[in-house]
Amino acid sequence: MTGPAPAPRYQLRLAHLYPDVMNIYGDRGNVLALRYRCQVRGIELKVTDVNVGDPFDPAAFDLVLMGGGQDREQRRIAEDLVAKGPAIRAAVDDGLPALVVCGGFQLWGHRYVDHEGGVIPGISVFDLETRHPGPRADRCIGDVVLSTGAGDVVGFENHGGRTYLGPGQEPFGRVRRGFGNNAEDGTEGARRGNAIGTYLHGSLLPKNPAITDELLLAALRRRYGADVELPPLDDAAEQAAHRSAEAIAARRSRGAD
Q1: Catalytic site residues?
Q2: b/e for 89-115, b at 16 or more Cβ within 10 A?
Q3: Which tens digit of pLDDT belongs to each residue from 196-227?
Q4: Which of 25, 59, 92, 99 has the smallest CB count inside 10 Å?
Q5: Pairwise CA distance, residues 59 & 82, whole Å
Q6: Is the pTM of this model over 0.85?
Q7: Please, what are the domains in the chain?
Q8: pLDDT one-digit tens code per residue, 12-42
């Protein structure tokens, strides 16, 4: 007779911000990728959806995700997000890992100025501003390849706004193919501590296991100590998807190696 399965050695608590409205282009797939890479390592991942009006204490979580949304969705959640902003900034400065995508990325900057000049306030985690160049401007759409500290990252972008980093703001990566933040300066996304902001949908994490594990390891070490290690996984499927996305970008996207 066998007894109950042993409790997982580690547990992580993930806050998914505004998944009811900020979830376009497959951003929810990032949660699935995190869950899978935890599950096969015996790590319990508890996911809590945090929507408008819900209480939110970042100290109760080990990891934060926020997806993308169009301008109207950003307006719907902006006031609530701004109210949560001081606690989020303090948690990021304390090492909280986060991944925020597209509209979420824009609202983690200082502000988003829409195509009519209206201002949607952000929470200033990242030193950046996003401005829409107007209704006649082309959108930044296509496959992307970035050079980052964790190696090449692949994804898909679709945004009208142009994001400009402050002078000391670190980007997430440098554009090899695609448009990036503004189609001008070669930057893509932003980083502050363990928090990553990016325009890359697709969804991002299933095709980029190194980034997924970077977020998980930061979360585990913040909660359990610096000696925590992640056992390696067989990433053959993930790497095949990564190579396929990179090949597609080489055929279709702007840029050159």
Answers
A1: 102, 201
A2: bebbeeebbbbbbbbbbbbbbbbbbbe
A3: 999 998 799 999 999 999 999 999 999 999 99
A4: 59
A5: 17
A6: yes
A7: 10-252 (3.40.50.880)
A8: 999 999 999 998 777 889 999 999 999 999 9
